[in-house]
Structure formats: structure tokens, C-alpha cells
Design a protein that fits this description.
By secondary structure, the protein is mostly helical. The protein has one domain (7-225). The protein has eight helices and four strands. The strands form two sheets. The protein has a two-stranded antiparallel sheet. The protein has a two-stranded antiparallel sheet with strand order 2-3. A hairpin with a 2-residue loop joins strand 2 and strand 3 (101-102). Helix 1 (7-28) runs parallel beside helix 8 (206-225) and helix 5 (104-129) crosses helix 6.
């Protein structure tokens, strides 16, 4: 705590402010301008997550790099071969691309996996702390819970985001969004959440939990009201 507000509170305030501005702009004002501001918003959330991470040691940076590299790699396979996710292409909203994949997608994978992992880990730790010592469960079950539940949460977030992302020109599907997309999302998320669990860094971050909730509300409102 430094000053009257913690860094978590400051980061949460900024996240709410910029998502609210983006939401209002997309729904009521210059949709094109606010859609093309997405890279700035995504990078700002990324910086805020780094700022609020406690003791960002080498393990944390390894996890971040794993998310970025894996995220970009699987998207390259998906876009260029159709072997993963399905038949889709990216628009130009997300900025500079490599092999038809925006580099910001790697950042987006990190944000989603990190926020889902931290959120499930935080919830699980609270449940365990309130249980009698004899019923605390094994370490293996706790790890599996974070991985499986975190991956399920990531898939839910993708399901919520998909139709909005198409309308915002983030990417486009050749036909309806396939179930195969969500299956691939689950298994890639499981892989990255396994790395999340193996890497020994501080996994408590109140802002990461808040950001996930803010983004869920952002896409939920757009999914409900966007034409």
C-alpha cells in the first residue's frame, strides 16, 4: 500500500475507465475509431498486469514467454493450415502481423491464461483455507483443479468473446464458429495452465481477478446490445 490507494485499486480503476470508454464509444459514438483503439487498450491491460504482479521473477517471465510463443504458434498453424481451431482469418484491427497472425494475439493469450489461472488459484486457496486440515485435499488434486477449471473458464471466455470479436473485425470465420475451436482452446489452455502451475511465481493478483470480471462484463454487454 503506497498512498491512499493500492496499485490494485489504481489498476482496476484504469481498467474500468478504459473499458467503459470503449464500450460507450462502440455502442453510441464512432465505432470504427474505438475498435481500432483495441491494441492500445490490450497493451495497457498487459502493462497493468505486469505492474501488479508481485515479485516478477524469472519463472514469471518464462511463463509469459511460453504463453506468447505458444499463442502465436498455434494461431499460425490455425490460420495457415486449419488444423487447429477451424477455418478463420484475422482482420487488420489488432495491428502488425506475422504469417497472418497479429503479434498482439500472443499478449492476449497471456492475459486470458494468466487471469483465468490466478482467478481459479485464488478461489481454490480460499476454499482450502476454510476447510478442516484433514479435508484439505492432495496437492495433485489442487493442481488438476487449477488446470482443468482454469481451462474451462478460458473456453467460456472465448465462447463469450467469439461473436463480438467477429463483429469488431478481430477475426472472421468461414461459416459458423465450430465446436472444434473450443476443443482446441481447451487443450491449448490446459497446456499453458500446466506451465502456469509448474512455474514458481506469486500467483495472487487481485487486479488479474478484477480484470477478468471487467472483460467478461465488457464482452457480455457487447454481445447483448451490439448490432
Amino acid at each position: 500500500m503506497t498512498g491512499p490507494f493500492s496499485k490494485y485499486q489504481i489498476a482496476t480503476f484504469l481498467a474500468i475507465l478504459f473499458h467503459a470508454i470503449g464500450l460507450t464509444g462502440i455502442l453510441f459514438f464512432d465505432r470504427n475509431f474505438f475498435i481500432h483503439s483495441t491494441p492500445f487498450n490490450l497493451l495497457l491491460m498487459f502493462v497493468l498486469l505486469l505492474w501488479t504482479q508481485v515479485k516478477a521473477n524469472s519463472w514469471f517471465w518464462i511463463f509469459l514467454a511460453a504463453c506468447f510463443i505458444t499463442g502465436v504458434a498455434v494461431e499460425m498453424i490455425g490460420v495457415n493450415t486449419g488444423l487447429l481451431f477451424g477455418d478463420y482469418k484475422y482482420g487488420d484491427v489488432l495491428g502488425k502481423q506475422l504469417k497472418q497472425v497479429p503479434l498482439l494475439i500472443g499478449i492476449n493469450w497471456f492475459i486470458i491464461i494468466y487471469c483465468c489461472g490466478v482467478s481459479v488459484h485464488t478461489l481454490l486457496m480460499r476454499i482450502v483455507q476454510n476447510m478442516p486440515a484433514a479435508n484439505g485435499g492432495s496437492a495433485t488434486l489442487k493442481v488438476l483443479a487449477v488446470i482443468v477449471d482454469g481451462a474451462t473458464l478460458a473456453v467460456f471466455f472465448d465462447w463469450l468473446m467469439e461473436p463480438v470479436a467477429v463483429k469488431l473485425d478481430y477475426w472472421h470465420w468461414n461459416g459458423p464458429i465450430p465446436v472444434y475451436n473450443y476443443i482446441c482452446w481447451f487443450f491449448v489452455s490446459v497446456l499453458l495452465l500446466l506451465v502456469f502451475q509448474v512455474c514458481k511465481f506469486e500467483k495472487r493478483n487481485k487486479f488479474a481477478v478484477n480484470l477478468l470480471l471487467i472483460q467478461v462484463m465488457f464482452f457480455l454487454v457487447l454481445r447483448t446490445f451490439m448490432n
